[in-house]
Every structure is written in C-alpha cells, then in structure tokens.
Specification:
Number of domains: 1
Radius of gyration: 14 Å
Order of helices and strands: HHHHHH
Mean pLDDT: 93
Strand content: under 5%
Length: about 110
C-alpha cells in the first residue's frame, strides 16, 4: 500500500518538467500550516517542530490520498520515503518555517 500511496504523492507534487518537486511539497505544507488554526495553537503552546510537522504531514497526506483513516505511522513512513529520495532533506524549508513562526511567537 505504501508504494501506491508514494506514487500518488509523487504524482501530486510533480512539477511541469515531470520531476518530484520538493519546493512544491514544502510550499503546500507551509500554506496548510499558515491556514490552520490548530497549527497556530500548537505553535502558541510551544509544541516541537517534529510534533507540528507530523500533524501537518498526516492531515495533508490524508487529504491528498483520500484516506481519512491513514495512520500517523503510515504517513511518517511515506515522509521517510520522500526524505530518503532527497539528500538535502525533503522537509527542510517547512521545518525552517515552523521554527521561524515559533521564534516570532516567543517575541510576543
């Protein structure tokens, strides 16, 4: 099942040149995080970057794959597969954005 889901994620985040785009992936995750009141609450409550990233990945992957029962374990396996395929870290830009929001929240 993970292979089928991974292929669906690859297709969703493929750019016009036919390559998996980690820029598209990160932009989509950042957009979701910015629009989510739950993520804002997590940042306010000083949840870890990992906890916030995992929540966003599960919610986005459930939506993209059309499987509301997708487990966190499966979502994280898929994220690991995406990360393994990209030597620079698939979620670096997203993690950096979460940290930026957390730092901005600390200053309030």
């Amino acid at each position: 099942m993970n292979e089928k889901y991974y292929s669906a994620l690859e297709a969703f985040y493929t750019d016009k040149s036919g390559k998996l785009s980690y820029e598209l992936l990160n932009k989509d995750l950042i957009k979701f995080a910015h629009s989510s009141s739950y993520v804002r609450a997590m940042i306010t409550n000083r949840e870890s970057v990992e906890t916030i990233r995992n929540y966003v990945l599960v919610m986005k992957f459930r939506h993209i794959l059309g499987d509301k029962n997708l487990t966190e374990e499966t979502a994280l396996q898929l994220a690991g597969m995406l990360d393994d395929a990209y030597s620079k870290g698939a979620f670096k830009a997203f993690n950096d954005e979460i940290r930026k929001k957390q730092n901005a929240n600390k200053k309030k």
